[in-house]
Amino acid sequence: MQSSELRQKYLDFFKKQGHAIIPSASLIPENDSTTLFTSSGMQPMVPYLMGEKHPLGTRICDSQKSFRVVDIEEVGDGRHGTFFEMLGNWSLGDYFKKEQLHWIYSFLVEEVGLNVNNLYATVFRGEESIKVTKDSESVDILKDIFKKYGIDAKDVNFSEKDGMQGGRIFYYPVEKNWWSRSGIPAKMPIGEIGGPDSEIFYDFGVDLKKHDNSEWKDLPCHINCDCGRFIEIGNSVFMEYKKTENGFEKLTQQNVDFGGGLERITMASQNTEDVFQTDLYLNIIKKIEELSNKKYSDDKKSFQIIADHLKAVTFIMGDNRGITPSNLGQGYIVRRLIRRAIRFGKQLGINEYLWQTKLAEIIISDYKDIYVEIQNNKDFIMDCLSAEEIKFENTIEKGLKEFSSLSSQNIISGKDAFLLYQTYGFPIEMTEELAFEKGLKIDMEEFKKESEKHQELSRTASAGTFKGGLADASEQTTKLHTSAHLMLAGLRKFLQDSVSQKGSNITSERVRFDFAWKDKLTQDQLKQVEDFVNEAILKDLPVICKEMTLDDAKEINATGVFEHKYGERVKVYFIGEGEQNISKEICGGPHVEHTGTMGKFKIIKEESSSAGVRRIKAILQ
Hints:
This is alanine--tRNA ligase. The chain is an alpha+beta fold. It has 20 helices and 20 strands. It folds into 3 domains: 3-276, BirA Bifunctional Protein, domain 2, CATH 3.30.930.10; 281-462; 469-620, Threonyl-tRNA Synthetase, Chain A, domain 2 (2-Layer Sandwich).
């Protein structure tokens, strides 16, 4: 089955089960300080999983664009990608385990046509330390499901020690079958939600253990082994717990959070254990072959890194909150991916001028009917790629020669590593990768000191220090969030009505607000915006939330990111009523009820964030 048909079948299937289809959220998180990018379908749904009412009801499904920084180094094994689509469906206090498990297996077997004999399941073993018992309820449901397809499903415990033992359903500990954004229960912060899950695995029948040099040949065979035979294609999370000071407590509602990788389900449907051999990458791989005059089989790792990284940056830069390559935060990740792709392009012998834009053309063509924003932002993508490629091409050859001269040492000093970054534009991760290939080490402590000395923050950026959204839901953070709405309204009034938000980071101490504008703001302009916000605070204007369709929000000229389709309902926050209305913006909250509670607004800094983007930092006194 082609991926486009599979994606649509999934949405149609759950629509028949009473689910409202929502569009993919932005890759750039809003009101979420836990990550640089949207890394799962669950991320934008957290407020509703915690009990907030969703405008479209209690049954929701979508296909969510996702990006995971942590998988950058994993790309090259044929299975991992930084960019992927997550097919998701949610029950927000509606149905639970029985309906979810029956539906998802029915979809995979009867709609997609996967061979049920190749499907295996895992469930939660239980964890005494958090007083959550093993999930025998899901086991009983799964046995009924497999029985429907003529399989007598045996449940097995401790397969990681004793092997599969003819089992079909396997118990695993919290490290494998508990899901939260933070990982296992011990790592979950107070207030975080999570729960046990049931994963679905597909058996490709590739028994690598038979190879004499296999690192798994002496280990017991089980489906969570990394030998390559099995791959997880979906995960039903039973999201019903919240971590508190007193341990884990039940949420007010039982939720289902399903995530299934479109790429991996497509792999199973097209019967290939290499995701880059599916139709999702076929056109990109062909173009790389054309550009390099090499075959995919000649250097799979280089092909995969280039294909994945350029797909990722095309979507990140093509997002309506598009990010430009830079030395900070999300922009640093974009720069790192582009430059890593260029390096592996060199390894393949690609020399064509601005060759990355040729691949972006393919990616945009492949996805423009599904994600229209990348077509709408095509010029921006091409301009960013061209500028970054030209900038890096001017120094990469010199940088590689410089590295070669350093590699005669046993260890590369931090100063030399920083020189490669500052002078030749090598992200530290690229230098680490080159060093690893040569069997060398880098003095990272010295590198960090050099970075701090020069106020370069690239290393911490990739670890997620520069995060978007709200740090918490405290009263002061809520006030600053409302002030961000007022600030945008002021910028649109005194600069230009088309000024758009490019990102924000709000803590209880300050608001950091990025917006599209090329020029440095004058002191007069900053004072106009500051006075506008303070005047709105003095008027003690009401803040009112109204639910409406996206078309209605457009009709009243509400600000926001209009990348949606499917007629979604949204929340629009109005500041001031009638003739006193000064802001109407699509947002998920939270906000104050009256502006008079906010205090005095003060802009403390205005600076460049990246090309064409300015940044304001402000406080409430």
